[in-house]
């Protein structure tokens, strides 16, 4: 971590962050943690927080939760949150699967965002990709009816896999015939700009949780 990221951990983590592995058993009390009742939106894999901070700032009415495995990324996100004076953002360090399984109640999330997850481009590594049927089944179960699952990737094969996996989940319905139009509100990150320069097309998918 940089000096600034380390400072952010020391100053802001006690208020903004928690370790998934150290959470007490049962669902997280988001209303208590945020100090208010509001729709809870979970972003899985916030990276360096470039998009996350901007989206949280644009949606002050939402309790925005980001889960990430890399400490440096969370440190950078806390620096961004400090700069924007965000009050509606909380951070979790650890495994999103454990978080969803053990600490998020069924039908409790208003939305889940997974933007540009690690594509694991080599074929032998495809099994490591996050978006697989068991994971999407778990995500869908945690969305409230009408809740939104929004995914984006710049790797064509992964985009096809996401479309196939999500379309096969009976609790989800694609809001579009296939790909969603790129939302103007989703910030264009440096990674997406690099993908554009390298000729890779970014794809968005927006699925809605159906009633059980």
CATH architecture: 3-Layer(aba) Sandwich
Structural class: alpha/beta
Gyration radius, rounded = 17 Å
In order across it, which strands form the biggest sheet?
1-4-3-2-5-6-8-7
Shape: globular
Unreliable stretches covering 5 or more consecutive residues? none
Main pleated sheet = 8 strands, mixed
Number of domains: 1
Mean pLDDT: 95
Please identify which CATH superfamily we are dealing with.
Vaccinia Virus protein VP39
The arrangement of helices and strands along the chain is: HEHEHEHEHEHEHEHE
**Helical content (DSSP H or I, runs of 4+):** 25-40%
Counted by DSSP, the helix tally is 8
Highest-level CATH class:
Alpha Beta
Total strand segments:
8
Distance between the termini: 44 Å
Fill in the CATH topology: Rossmann fold
Strand content: 15-25%
Describe the structure.
With 212 residues, the chain is of the alpha/beta class. It has one domain (3-209): Rossmann fold (3-Layer(aba) Sandwich), CATH 3.40.50.150. It contains 8 helices and 8 strands. An 8-stranded mixed beta sheet has the order 1-4-3-2-5-6-8-7, with helices on both faces. Helix 1 (3-16) crosses helix 4 and helix 3 (50-58) runs parallel beside helix 4. The mean pLDDT is 95.
């Amino acid at each position: 971590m940089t000096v600034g990221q380390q400072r952010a951990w020391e100053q802001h983590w006690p208020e903004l962050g928690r370790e998934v592995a150290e959470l007490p058993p049962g669902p997280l009390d988001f209303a208590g943690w945020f100090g208010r009742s509001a729709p809870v939106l979970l972003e899985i894999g916030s990276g360096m927080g470039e998009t996350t901070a901007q989206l949280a700032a644009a949606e002050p009415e939402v309790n925005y939760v980001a889960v990430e495995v890399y400490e440096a990324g969370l440190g950078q996100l806390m620096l961004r949150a400090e700069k924007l004076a965000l009050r509606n953002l909380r951070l979790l360090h650890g495994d999103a699967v454990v978080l969803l399984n053990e600490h998020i109640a069924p039908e409790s999330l208003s939305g889940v965002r997974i933007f540009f997850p690690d594509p694991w481009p080599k074929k032998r590594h495809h099994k490591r990709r996050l978006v697989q049927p068991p994971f999407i089944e778990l995500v869908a179960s945690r969305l409230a009816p009408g809740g939104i699952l929004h995914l984006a990737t710049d790797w064509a094969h992964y985009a096809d896999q996401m479309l196939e996996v999500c379309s096969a989940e009976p609790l989800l319905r694609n809001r579009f015939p296939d790909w969603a139009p790129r939302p103007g509100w989703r910030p264009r990150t440096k990674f997406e700009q690099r993908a554009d320069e390298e000729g890779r097309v970014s794809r968005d998918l927006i699925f809605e949780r159906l009633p059980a």
